[in-house]
Design a protein that fits this description.
single chain, alpha+beta, eight-stranded mixed sheet, seven-stranded mixed sheet, 22 strands, 21% strand
Amino acid sequence: MKIRKALQAAAVIMATALAGCSAAPQPAATAEPTAEASGIYTPGTYTAVSAGRNADIKVEVTFSADAIEDVKITEHSETDGIGTNATDTIPGKIVETQSLGIDAVAGATITSDAIIAAVADCVTQAGGDPEELKNVEVAKSEPTEEKTLDTDLVIVGGGGAGMTAAIRARELGLEVVLLEKMPFMGGALSISGGNQVVMGSQMQKDLGVTDDSSESMVADFMANGANLNVPELIQLYADNVGETSDWLQANGITYNLEGGLHKLAEYSHDRELAYTGGGAGAGEALRTAVNDGGTTVLLNTRASELLTDGEGNVTGVVAADDTVKYTVNAKAVLLATGGYGYNKDLLEGDMKNALYYGPVSSTGDGLLMATAEGVNADTRLLEYGKRYPNGIEVSEGIAKSTINGNIPAWKMSAILVNKEGKRVVNEKASNRTILEAELEQTGQQLYLVMDQATFDVWKDALGYSVDEYLEANGTSKPVFGHGDTIEAAAEAAGVDAAELAKTVETYNSYVEAGEDKEFGRLPEYMTVAIGEGPYYIVEQKPRFATTMGGLVIDTDLHVINKDGNVIGNLFAAGELVGGVMGDDSPSGANNGWAVTSGKLAAESIAEALSE
């Protein structure tokens, strides 16, 4: 079976992920850091800059004649709780080990690599050899101690579902241990766009939508998911997401009410809100609530096996960090380990070739543990993942999202064209509709066309730097072509210049007339014509972070085995659960399901233990 065959491969991938996937080159041989191995430096302090995830990272490195004495990050804009794990730890590790061959911080690969690259630049300035420093091996620690913990509930995974479950379980009086293999809690929610469905909440009503309903939400989700949704699970979601949203708001995870509800093509009613501070803000608020609530949190601790009693009941978890192997005995186990998008051995069909932009922690750990021999959990819809049409390929197979920039750009003059320079879709249609059009085009991609005024707004809203992409001007991935004229920008991006010029002229005539005669873009998104240059053309490729398949559960969040029976004491929540969304998820849906299912799981577990 595919999942069985993926077990060994997943272990290798997981080791890579926890090392940051694309960390500095691994050492070729063991060596003690010496003056000769480290190179001879010209003493002094040197500075360098490298592109981080969100913006440039500036470092200041001080050398003596034979050692790196100090590394300081003097400027950065990396995400709190994620990128800051690298800015806080990588400089000290470089000084401690006198090596550039250190592992990247898990989940903060781009930030880690940027710091290492900037320090390498300083090493060169000081007369040293950075390649030699990359070959200085850093010893890897192994667990040398064993500990046994006893608790009511052990939660595996500290993303949106796991953290919400911990907060609610502690509120209900349960003793909770939370295991998180990354150096921080947050998961996919903390790096998401930070939007959530809030249907049925008091917040939605207060913002003027009083006629929404569970029936309407279920119908919208079923249509978006090609009717592959599990009816009882999408109904469970719709019936409880409003109460969950209000509960979170009361527990410090706030929503941007001033920004109002979002108008989206996927929904018949306005039912999405942004978190205050986006995904990063929600992640930080949840982390604070978990820690304040008294949950025992073990970071950098990866669960590897479910314990069973031989009669089909789960009794705990085996996990380990760098120094301790844990046996956690628990009355209930909640798997909230997220998806499997970063494990190509578990992906199927087109998903194997789609650009990935999700967390490196999404390697299917919970899926593999639950389907292992002796547990035998059932699965569904593993062939599906949520693809978006707005990615740029920043490295081989890896994407960044442009959605934060696209949203304000649609209110201005941005349009989408294919390689032949023609519009093929309403730019304000649903993501699914745009994706379907995109997949039919040459190279399965579209291009975002912007004038200078629109590009300035788009760039500022992105949340990360694109300066190096602009400098390449279409000569490398990702394609960011630009020029003083439409034709010059098109040539740089590899788009048909003559046809694009005609398309721009036609679109501007639609703006003047107040009607998109080809694709029906709403008039409120056609108030600005494409104006003066320079002009910018940015690639748009399919990307995904979220997998749609996963474990089979019932409406009490119990995991079901291949015989259709409940697995005693085992529960699942969040992205690990299969079938809620069908083959696709609308905007704000995944975050909403994570927190709703996490809360419901905690309540179901508390009720089961009380009996």
